[in-house]
Amino acid sequence: MSVHLARTALEAVGDVADGSTVMIGGFGPAGQPVELVEALLEQGAGDLVVVSNNAGNGEDALARLIGERRVRKIVCSFPRQVDSWHFDAAYRAGDIELELVPQGNLAERIRAAGAGLGGFFTPTGYGTPLAEGKETRLIDGVPMVFESPIRADVALVKAHRADGVGNLVYRKTARNFGPVMATAARRTVVQVSEVVPTGSIDPETVVTPGIYVDAVVPVDGVTALAGTGPADRGAAS
Known about the structure:
- 43% of the residues are buried.
- The chain has 6 helices and 13 strands.
- The chain has 237 residues and is an alpha/beta fold.
């Protein structure tokens, strides 16, 4: 089995349709698949539901996607920061819907989707507006609220390195939401710094198995798929 190796970021996101739910990895700029989101801007899809940690910073690609009114709804933990003026303007104008999700709940809701779970109970958010309309229970004396999984049509993820079958390793904190998002989407598109021969990544360092990956694009233009190299120990550091 091999993963699709896209020649450009635009090719990799070319089939994102209007109305899609798109997960975008990253914690602020750390681990954000910038080139893929830039390509999505160029590609033209609109009426999107975006699942992300935040709502863009300054004039970055996600912020501009919101500024161009291409995002119908955003599901995130930190929508308003000092430089989130595109989201602020769109929200005040009534042009974007916000689903605010505490960060731990966001990660776990995505993970639940990837694990095939029907949801989970958590005390986080109980008794606040975030729990309105959701099932609540008293479990072992602790009041809890039910949270449902978050699934996507497409996940845009940044990893450090991939091999020919899509196995991924990440670089330090750039890992953040990437692994769970890769499992929770019908199609996962990954930008990497390099693609190496299958077998050259030590299996012990693989974070996302290639079974979850549909397309890879090397944004730094480094591709070495021919042959099999030595095990790439320590690649996740």
